[in-house]
Every structure is written in C-alpha cells, then in structure tokens.
C-alpha cells in the first residue's frame, strides 16, 4: 500500500518535472517571442511559436517519453539492465538508413523514412534470426541482435568510407549525435502516428510485458505466451524508437538512463513504462533547453543528455548504496 | 573608406572594357587608355533607381524553389561564407544583419568589412539557428544547398530564402547573377561576372601555347589529401596552366592518397591550399617526400592565406587562377603584373588596398 502510494507520488513528481521542462521548452529560445502578440494571426511571433517552438517542444516530449518508455520495455523484456535500442540493432539500422539517404542526397523527409525503414529492418532481421534458433530464449535474441548490429556497423563504415569527409561524412556524424534544432510540424507529423501506435500497443500489453520481467517459466505459469509476447513487445518498442530517431537522429542514453533513474528513484522494483517515459521526457526536454541556450550555436542534444543524465545516475547510485548500508 | 571605395569603383569601372587592365592582367597595363569612352553603367551611381525598378522579382533558386521578392530586401542574412563574401563584392554588405558562424576565420571580412565580425551568427551548415535567424527579421536569407530544409522552414515562417550552390565556375557566375537580382545589385553582379569571364579568357589566351607542368594540389587536412577532376580545384589548376596530378581520381570530394601514390605521380609542382592545417615546412621536412621532383627543385608553393580560399569558387577565385598562372608560368605572366591585377580587383570589388607582399608563394 505504502509502495503504491509512493509510486503514485513519484509519477506525479515525474509528470510535474516533464511538464515544467515542456513549459521551459516553450518559453526559451533565440527568438524573443512577444506573448501578447501571439493572437495576431499574421504576426511573426505567432508563426515562430507555431512552426518552430511548439513542434520542437512536442517532439522533445514525444521523443523523450518514447525513448524512456521503450527503453524500460527493452530492459524488462530482455532481462538485461544494459539493454537499449542499440542492443537489437534499431540504432545502427537507422544510422545505415540515414547514412544511405545522406549519400544519395535525399532531403529531410526521405532521410527520416529510410532511417525508420533501416531500424525496423535491422530488428526484423534480429528477431527472425532468433526465431531460427532452436532455443528461443533471450540469449538468442541478444546474440542475433549483436550479429545484426555488427553487420549494420560494417555497412555503415563502408558508407562512411565512400562519403566525402567534409560534407556527407560530417552530416552522417552529426545525424548520429541527434538534434531537435530543425524540427518542423511536418517532421513531427511524420513521427507521431507511428510512435503513438507503438506506445498505444505497449500500453495495452502493459501487464504481460511487466510479467515478462519474471523468469520465463514463471511468466508462462502466469499465462503469458512468452516467446510471442516478447517479440510483440520488442517490435512495438522498436516502432516507437525507430519513429523517434528517424526524425531526431540518435539521441544517446535517454533510453538507457531514464529507466534506471526511474528505478533508483523508486528505490527498488521495476519502474513502469509511464514513470520511465516521463523521466525520459523531462530529461530530454531539459537537455534540449540547455542545448539551445548554453552556447551561441546549437549543441547536439546527445551531448547534453549524457552530461545531464550520467552525473544524476551516479548520484542516485551513491545514494542507493548508502541506503542499503 | 566608403567614399574612397566609391571613387575607386567609379574610376576603375571607367577603365573597364577599354582594356583588360582593370580586371585581368594584360602585361602592358594601359595607363593611357583613360581617354577611351566611359563604360555604360558605373555601378554605384546609377544603381538605386534601376534597382528599385527591378522589383517585385520572381527567381528560381539552385534548389528549384520559386522565390518572390516584393521589394528590394533591406535586411539580409547570409548563412554561407561564399555568399557573405559575394555581398561584400556586390556592395550590399551594409544590409547584412546576420552571417554564418566562424566568421573570424575569413580574412577577407576583417580586411574589407570588419563590421561583419560584429554581426550575430546564425549557425553553421550543420546546425542552422532558425529562431535566431527569424529574430533578426530579415527580408531575405541566403543559404547553401545543404541547408535546403532550413530554407523550407523559413518559407513556412514567411521569410524569403534563396538557396545557392556555387560549386563550379559556371555555378559561381550563376550564383552571382541570382544574388544580384535578389538583392537588387544586378549591375554590380554583371560587372563581377564580366570581370571573371575576361580573366578566364585572358588566362586561356596568355597560356595557350605554354607547356603545362603536372601540379599536385595538397589539400586542407593533410598533404596526402587532394582534389580530383570533379572538383573546382581542378579548374583552378587548368586555368593557371597546369595539369592536375590527380587526374585519375574519381572521387567527388577531397580524396586521401598514399605516399606511394604521390611518389608515382611525381608532380613537377606542389601547391598547398590556403586552408591547409599544416605548413610548407612540414611538407618539406617529410623524409618520405624528399625524392619528389617538386621538392628537389624547390617547386613547392603555398597559396596566400591573407585573402580568401582561392581554391574554392569564391568571388575572387579568379585571382587564385592568376596566382597559379604566375607561379607556373612567371615568364608569361609576371609577378608585378599579377600584383597589380590582384590589387585592382580587391580595390574595385572589396574597397581595400591589399599588401602585395602577402601575394607571394
């Protein structure tokens, strides 16, 4: 009873944090928006708010929540605290897609599409490979993921080799650092349906996915079709991650850190998707606000998410040990 | 400064078309030719009336986008160093309210328009600052092709954006013309394009029968990186009367080669680009390269760094070709003539008296 109440209180706190970061994301930027002029439909203030500021904040919310929530799914389903989108190849698959698009000289929307396709293809290959193995356990999924990952990295290296170093290679490298700087309503509209569908699916499967965190035979005893459910959960989490990174580029550590931060805040117990998602959203939005205001030019958001998240995780880690003593 | 620039521009414009003297070097520069008929439109004086008449204008930019400008843009943002330099050359730098980041790495700004260094930066080609750009409330934003997405976003904000792609000599001239039309300085752009074409013709004539040495162009990041025929740098070598040692490369960008490759090409001349991260001494001190003909005969030259990246399609790219012609064929194109031509160019289009000692290899 006590735990449930504190979990609820934590969720409310995380909601406030994410909401505050979202508000800051709407308020902070290079353009001095005159809020009283926002009602004027022809004014530049309104256009800047609607086509730049609002989509960027919404994408930050969606991306942070999506990465945090799907990160917790990966970690739960794979019984692995180190599991992140990279483990089963989403990130490297998406990078290959994006790199190919950059080399072909495609614009932003086609790059996003190819990145999305690359991510899904890589995870599809990993899951299919794991399905071929006689032991349909977690290890085979992780190993198949490692194989696909290695393959994708090799292709990525080949693509980088053919890229010219100052323009295309720089663009590829920059894509892998992630950014919300050039977010527009179109890009948001491209990612939103897929990410929302994936999140809705995960929300529906919330209970069986949590049970997948138990050892396989226990989960089976509780009536969970372990192999099928695991694949479904991974596919849905991949849909979310793929949709997000296809428009933002790779955003480091949010998917890995947010569930751990959530778990440590709860002091034990597995964090739900909601808490991980809200933590991720708050983390990413706060990082993005800093990314756009720390220096004269934009800083890639991954730099800031890592700089923010890593010390926080460290602090929580130290606190946890003290509590156990 | 401004008055002086105008005077100089008017004087030099008067000498235009009379001979190539004001532009490309003809060995006997024509001091007596001032009696000839003055040029039709010396840009600065007659410009404003003609320029307002040019608007509204509808243009197709390098990305195939349609750009409509109702009136002459009074505030400009340039997100690309080549177009910022073009704005100086076209005389509309005083209308710039924002330029690309890292402006302090472009010596020509400090020389010709130091006030540009005080302007707010609008980011790089990787991370363009859309909000910061909108905050400057520009009438026109000029962007390179790789920032096409940003141009589309600016469209949605109702800010006209012009996408340019100067990668070759013809594209440089197209870009000048396009920018001239968009910014309302078409006459000045035509003047600069004409000057470029005259210089090109002059170089082709002067170097027609000359024996063409094999030139290796040592690139920015390392002297083992070089430019193949697909790049503007190849044009630079050809215009200067040389043959590109890297003619066999198919890369469309700077390519890394090996020591062995360079030894096999054994160029007669090595030219180091202005943006090199190493010095000529670094190259000469490399024992692996000691046996190269160019090194043994002392034919290693570093392009001057005090002006612009002459190995890129910048507005003064032709001065780079003239420099190359002087280095490769000093007998056909004397240094003093080159120095006079370069001085004329920079005084005419950039309003600066350059220090000719900085022109030496």
Characterization of this structure:
In chain A, 75% of the residues lie in helices and 0% in strands. With 325 residues, chain A is mostly helical. Chain A has one domain (2-324): ABC transporter involved in vitamin B12 uptake, BtuC, CATH 1.10.3470.10. With 361 residues, chain B is α/β, with parallel strands linked by helices. Chain B has three domains: 2-42, no CATH class; 48-194, Nitrogenase molybdenum iron protein domain (Rossmann fold, 3-Layer(aba) Sandwich), CATH 3.40.50; 207-329, Nitrogenase molybdenum iron protein domain (Rossmann fold, 3-Layer(aba) Sandwich), CATH 3.40.50. Chain B has helices spanning 2-15, 43-53, 81-89, 107-112, 130-135, 148-157, 169-183, 186-206, 232-239, 259-265, 280-284, 293-296, 317-328, 335-349; strands spanning 57-60, 66-69, 76-78, 96-99, 140-144, 161-164, 214-218, 225-226, 243-244, 255-256, 269-272, 300-302. Chain B has a four-stranded parallel β-sheet, with helices on both faces. Chain B has a four-stranded parallel β-sheet with strand order 9-7-11-12. A two-stranded antiparallel sheet of chain B has the order 1-2. In chain B, helix 2 (43-53) crosses helix 8 and helix 7 packs antiparallel against helix 8 (186-206). Chain B is globular and about 60 Å long.
Can you list the strand order of the major beta sheet of chain B? Answer: 4-3-5-6
Order of helices and strands of chain A: HHHHHHHHHHHHH
Assembly status: heterodimer
Distance N terminus to C terminus of chain B? 29 Å
- CA radius of gyration of chain B is 21 Å
CATH topology category name of the largest domain in chain B: Rossmann fold
The structural domain count of chain B equals 3
| Structure classification of chain B | alpha/beta
Residues in β-strands, percent of chain B: 5-15%
The unreliable regions of chain B are 10-22, 25-50
Chain pair sharing the greatest interface? A-B, 30 and 29 residues
CATH class of chain A equals Mainly Alpha
Number of domains of chain A: 1
Q: Helix/strand/pairing class of chain A, anyone?
A: mainly alpha
Would you count the extended β strands of chain B for me? 12
